[in-house]
Design goal:
The protein has 156 residues and is mainly β. It has one helix at residues 80-95; strands at 3-7, 14-15, 24-26, 37-44, 47-49, 52-56, 60-67, 73-78, 111-113, 118-124, 129-134, 146-152.
């Protein structure tokens, strides 16, 4: 199983991933081994389930992506500007026959999950706001393969 640790940087707003085909997932489950909260995300051909995940600022979430589709999917987290830039980069690479972004530079590598496989992405929600989880494999983002992460302010 593949794990990637991503931290949301206030200046570059990066992130992590996706949810319920017919509703919202509130993070409540805790992994016994390290105490991080777990959100199970199913990837099917051109959809994430759930499509909305609610988290609190400051929480660390382990997104566990399971690809039940027939195509390769990716999960990349960021605000709408980041998603648009990543979509343009993926389209340019596809048109040039190039390889997928490898995470060099300021951006993390997207989490890529083959059919039948499961992979994890660990994300710490820094600030309240809204982020998107997207799959930018050819045609997937355009057909709606995205989910929202709603980050609420931590209140004691």
């Amino acid at each position: 199983m593949k794990s990637i640790r991503i931290h949301l940087l206030a200046a570059t707003t990066l992130s992590a991933v996706v949810l319920a085909a017919c509703g919202s997932a509130r993070v409540t489950e805790t992994a016994a081994t390290d105490g991080t909260q777990v959100v199970e995300v199913t990837m099917t051909d051109n959809a994430f389930s759930p499509t909305l995940v609610d988290v609190r600022a400051g929480d660390t979430i382990r997104f566990r992506f399971r690809n039940e589709g027939r195509a390769v999917h990716e999960a990349v987290i960021g605000d709408s500007t980041f998603q648009q830039e990543h979509a343009e980069e993926m389209a340019m690479m596809a048109s040039m026959g190039g390889a997928m972004h490898d995470g060099a530079g300021d951006e993390p590598a997207p989490l890529v999950v083959a059919p039948g496989e499961t992979a994890e992405l660990i994300y710490t929600a820094a600030d309240a706001g809204s982020l998107l989880i997207g799959c930018h494999q050819p045609g997937h983002w355009e057909s709606g393969m995205k989910a929202t992460i709603a980050v609420t302010a931590f209140v004691r």
